[in-house]
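dumping this here before i forget
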Amino acid sequence: MVELFTYPPILKGFIVLILTGFAFPITGVYLLRMNLLPLRFMLMHGAILGGAISLAMDVNPFGGTLIVNLLLVLLITWMSRSLKTDPGQLSAFFMVVSISLAFIFIYRFQIPAKDTLSLMWGSLYTLNGFEFIGTLAFSLLLILFQSFFRHQLRAVFFDADIAQTSGVNETGFYYAIILITAVTVAAAMKLIGALLLDALLLLPALIASYHAKSYRGMMLWSSFWGGMFAIVGFLLSLALGLPASSTIAVFASVVFLILILAKRK
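structure:
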């Protein structure tokens, strides 16, 4: 199995998975602590819309998913704050609109089924140089963001009003978290696809929430579980000759079930 790492696509995929496995669960913690789970579903549909538009224009889908997701989260954040509307309700609305428009583009421009399905299961081994460097850079920036602003983020998660009165720019951090979520979802969909997105994004954070004793502990444990899922799942996929994304998701799900059952006992 070691000789497989001499192939550049496999080696690049493994490197990206290691770093994203440790970094992306940080965004999962943000989603849980700020109750933004509906936003994640909307972003998945937005990424499919961006991919469909990109395929219709015959350009790289990664850029399209990223641009559409950024526009959607900025629009939802602005509407929810200016109109005093629940962001969860707006996310549900834009989720329906996004997937409807996506299928219109797929039908109107006769996008092949295999290209459409690639938006759902990702393409870890087809990362080009820009996507490889960009994903690594974003993962490092996410880790640095959490490290440098951990105290301000803890205050925002505890109580937004108290954080604001204490001198923390709550609005700025809220927008930052929303934008981070949009980029994370777009990158994760490129790596493991929409259907398996939660294997790196939410499952590590959910598992950490069951046994972590503090905010810091939840961050560290979620990153640990995400990194372990990525590394072990990837190695198992090579050993068994299975798709990496599916193997990672199944392994993460099995670990989640075992830990939940053990905790209940």
